[in-house]
Automatic annotation (TrEMBL):
Protein's name according to its UniProt entry: dTDP-4-dehydrorhamnose reductase
Superkingdom of this protein's organism: Bacteria
All copies of domain RmlD-like substrate binding, residue ranges: 1-46
Pfam families: RmlD_sub_bind
InterPro entries (alphabetical): NAD(P)-bd_dom_sf (IPR036291), RmlD-like-bd (IPR029903)
Taxonomic classification: Bacteria, Bacteria division WOR-3
Amino acid sequence: MKILITGAKGQLGQEFVKRLEKEEKNFLALPRDKLDVSNLKQVLQVF
């Protein structure tokens, strides 16, 4: 499973990152200014 956290610098994003690190999950965390989820080309480049 691929896990992407957008808004990783925000309050909720930071909590998700902490939880996933604790569970030793493989994930990618990006701040919202680094990925525009409404831009399909950018999203596909991440995956």
